[in-house]
Design brief:
With 232 residues, the protein is an alpha/beta fold. The protein has eleven helices and eight strands. Strand 1, helix 1 and strand 2 form a beta-alpha-beta unit. Helix 4 crosses helix 7 and helix 8 packs across helix 11.
Length: 232
């Protein structure tokens, strides 16, 4: 007579999910969505800013971070290098931005997938499970645009450029457009057009040069026109 097996069935550990968005209603809705997929998924933490995300993720070590691109005017992609140093989570971008260049930049920056905010709940849940398995995810609504961008610009220099552009804030993009529109104008003229002081303009330009790897306004003008940053 065969002996009865004494081995116990071990349930797989749920995928531990952290949600990062600056809108409380979206945070609440995503938490409920993840909880609806128990026991496969488990919502363990939320954050509403990049600094809070970095602090909480380092503490709770989630498996997957569902991350909005725009957090109170800050591009969250700029935080991914620091996030990777303290946390091994896979990152899924959940965004309302339909620009394929931004989606491509997210992948270049280290995200495993991109989902649009107006897609179905089942798509978001599938994407979480795919990126947890270290698979890239691009939902049908955006896959075509990303493939086209990658096919036309998939050179190392272009990918690096897109990644740097993605780190710019909305205000920095506005300043770049003003620089291009007022080529050759003195800093005080550009500052007045923007409604800021000349000192504040210099601080913004220093940050922009650092992000884009540029030296001066001449370099910035050339980079902006080459990458269509002069268009509002």
């Amino acid at each position: 007579m065969p002996l009865a097996s004494t081995a116990e069935t071990v349930e797989p550990r749920p995928i531990r999910v952290m949600i990062v968005d600056d809108h409380k209603a979206i945070l609440w809705g995503l938490e409920r969505l993840v909880e609806s997929a128990q026991p496969r998924l488990q919502s363990i933490a939320t954050a509403s800013s990049c600094s809070e995300m970095l602090r909480v993720a380092a503490d709770c070590q989630p498996d997957v971070i569902v991350l909005d691109l725009d957090l109170n005017g800050t591009n969250s992609l700029a935080s991914l290098p620091e996030l990777r140093r303290s946390c091994q989570a896979q990152v899924l971008i959940l965004t309302g931005d339909r620009d394929p260049a931004m989606h491509q930049a997210a992948i270049v920056a280290g995200a495993r997938g991109v989902v649009l905010k107006d897609e179905g709940a089942d798509v978001v849940l599938q994407a979480i499970e795919h990126v947890h398995a270290a698979q890239f995810w691009a939902s049908p609504l955006i896959a075509g645009g990303m493939v086209g961008m990658l096919a036309s610009r998939a050179t190392p220099d272009a990918l690096a450029g897109n990644s740097r552009i993605a780190s710019l804030t909305a205000r920095e993009r506005e300043i770049i457009r003003a620089i291009v529109r007022n080529r050759g104008a003195k800093s005080i003229v550009i500052a007045e057009a923007l409604g800021i002081s000349e000192h504040t303009l210099r601080n913004h330009l220093t940050a922009i040069y650092d992000k884009l790897g540029l030296r001066n306004r001449i370099d910035l003008f050339a980079f902006a026109t080459e990458h269509d940053l002069d268009r509002g």
